[in-house]
Amino acid sequence: MDYLKSALPSQIMSERGSNLVVINPGSANVRIGLASQDTPFNIPHCIARHTEQIPNFTVIDKMLNSTVTTQQHIDREKAYDVIAPLLKIPFLDEEGPSNSFPRKMGRVDGHNPHIIRKDLPFTWTNVYEEATNSSVSLETSSKDETDEFLDPKEGTDSKEPNASERKFKEFICGEEALRISPTEPYCFCRPIRRGHLNISQHYSMQQVLDDLHTIWDWILIEKLHIPRNERNMYSAVLVMPETFDNREIKEILSLVLRELCFGSAVVHQEGLAAVFGNGLSTACVVNIGAQVTSLICIEDGGALPSTGKTLPFGGEDISRAFLWTQRQRQTWPPIHSDVFGKPIDLLVLNQLKETYCEVKEGEFDAVAVVHSYENKVPAGPHKTRLSALNVPPMGLFCPMLLTPDAYPPPPRTWFHDYEDMLEDTWHIDFSRRADMSDTFYPNVNGGLPMWESYPVFSTKPKKEEKVGLAEAITNCILSTGRIDIQRKLFCSIQLTGGVALTSGLIAAVEERVLHAIPPNEAIDTVEILGVLDLGRDAWISREDWIHNGVHVGSNRKYKDSYYLQAQAMCYMNS
């Protein structure tokens, strides 16, 4: 443990990277991988368990969802008409001047600015155990999680066992859980919802933690090939989103050390990890996730907790807005799409959104193949022309278009137990296991000392902002109260998360943030840093730094002296 506290990150990576497991839990996906790997596994954070109590597929979350009200429909239409002039497109009740053909299915031979890709349909998951080894309940697929598109001629499975030999898999994790037919007797759960543990009257704390344990244990065994009896030789790095509260972090930390049997663990804040990972020391980090968007300012390598904000919408809300827009424009095929009750439909919408949506001016259409999924019937293709593809991403700036209230966060009554998470409950006495020595339980009687100087995560539920992305970024930075740091932060806004990859979004955020700054503020420059592009250019090789220094024509953005010093120290010690 002293080694972990004293060693430099580069030293730890080179000497123990193969024994460090990095875990970044999210609402829709969990990213897990060895520190020595270039890319972690990105797996849907969900599980479906077989049940004999219900005959058909059931989604636990559906019981918390509310239907879209008449007022929300009106607000959505108003939001569309607010966005329309910004994008220079017709209002919702207007016909485009160039539409001289029926709009419902469109012209399939028309202009398509995209190369159609990923048009192969998804296939239904095989929910039965392999006949040759029915006792292995963990086996869900011989395919990798990323191998999601199969030949449609293959159907759901090449061979099915006899009815008398069939045995349902006890549980199914990841994307295969999303592709279970609605006729199968499984209960589908997401243990994290809107950035919090998904605890409700329908989903107890123990069930949530059990599902987290099962999903992560399955990934560790099936993907990372780390059996339980060897995990005491591994350390876990928990990269936690800012949305989590202290009690939630405590439960997850206990899960990692006790149930998953890791030898040691450390908790890092997601915003700080994003900044350090891209070679910065000061930035406003905007993480646009699947279900929430979190913001926090980092100054000189330290988080400013008072600037933290959470917006209750993300990429999945954009996907739902995509479906609503197509239905309003009468371009969606005549199929029943249920994003709340049928997870495979949300999978389809996410795919279409990621493939076709951009932020750009003018009418923006594309020809695509939309597949429908009903019961166990093979996917049915519907060729159509999708329209107004630049509208859904603009919901980030006009949240009424997204109606996140239809998919509310889990109720927070869990925190009304008057338990002080910074005092006695942090002094956890982990039960000792016979296969582990005392060195794996430092300060057992004295609690977890790392939390004594770690005031970043709040003990109370964080308030969610009801504003658009541009206003949230502006308020987040201006709340620092100092003009010097404000100017620096406005020129160092870092977008992370899958939605940040949307074409045209960076330019739109820059423009909208600049217009959101009050005129009395002495700020005239805004710069957005795309996380992938910056991450690629931020690294300086040892040889390049020693022999060449900084090239003026290198197009690299060195924000401040702290950044240069950090890079120099990192590579001088590597």
From TrEMBL:
SMART domains in alphabetical order: ACTIN
What SUPFAM superfamilies does the database record attribute to this sequence?
A: Actin-like ATPase domain (SSF53067)
* Region span, Disordered: 135-163
Q: Where is the composition biased (Basic and acidic residues)?
A: 150-163
Pfam families linked = Actin (PF00022)
Gene3D superfamilies found in the cross-reference section? 3.30.420.40, Actin, Chain A, domain 4
Q: Which family does it belong to?
A: Belongs to the actin family.
Protein name (record): Actin-related protein 9
**Annotated organism of origin:** Glycine max
